[in-house]
Amino acid sequence: MKSVLLTGAAGFIGFKTAMELLKRGYSVIGVDNLNDYYDPRLKEYRLNTLKEYENFKFYKVDIENLEALRVIFEDNEIRGVINLAARAGVRYSIENPFVYTSTNTMGTLNLLELMREFGIRKFVLASTSSLYAGQPMPFKEDLPVNTPISPYAASKKGAEVMAYTYHYLYGFDVTVVRYFTVYGSAGRPDMCIFRFIKWIDEGTPITVYGDGTQSRDFTYVDDIAEGTVRAYETETGYEIINLGGNQPHQLKEVIKLIEDYLGKRAEIIYKPFHKADLKATWADITKAREILGWEPKVPLEEGLRRTVEWHKENRNFVKEIPLP
């Protein structure tokens, strides 16, 4: 079997990426620390689905733990690594910047060093559109993203440049995929779409930072998973590639669609815009099309419909999930 080490396997994007790999016949070695940044029951829900596959093996390990990772490398014939393990969230990174550096940057270094030690050359790193703060849109990969405005973005930039160093020194084939506002079924409860659906359905006022005209290049998680696997399967040398919906949508448009699919109206509380947030994101996906043969297939309307349907089918479970 073609064995892939996939970190963050119980996470939102990691889960879907694992599913895509398994469907393509890969053997997936999943790693996740199942931390409590949000309710671990969501991670266990995803993990239980993955454990139904005989070619999925799971280790509860933190990528900050170099020696525990070394055991995994020793015990498995790993052909390549996809690193989706990360501390996510712009606002929380301002409250606790140390854990973002230790996981996102140092954890990436641990993986790269073990790859060097065990002779593994293919590496895919998940990065973020948050790096493009202050740059002209649509965001292109060659923009000088040297001034990150949150510890989260800074920690991801550190991971990117460390991966380049290992490409330069040791010939690693590295593909960095910069994700743009990923959403979908069984998503992260710290992100707006999960929160808005839950709040509107339960009759709780929703909180919007800003006036709702801020826009995001929302990207459905299944599209992101496919793009990530294509990045793994494509030899690039060292490339940074945007994976985004290629069509920004305002937050108030998202809220209106959720209201329509739930058949309920939202009560909105507006708060000041957070200075570490981006007012708009828009991915130029030319490189993804040319290098990976990838572009998003699921439009926002369909992606939100699927996400709301998952919520309805799992309403009792979701009701128990507290929002961080």
TrEMBL record:
InterPro entries: NAD(P)-bd_dom, NAD(P)-bd_dom_sf. Residues 5-307 form the NAD(P)-binding domain. The keyword Ribosomal protein does not apply. It comes from the Bacteria. It holds the Pfam family GDP_Man_Dehyd. The keyword Oxidoreductase does not apply. Keywords: NAD. PANTHER family: EPIMERASE-RELATED. This is Nucleoside-diphosphate-sugar epimerase. It comes from Thermovibrio guaymasensis.
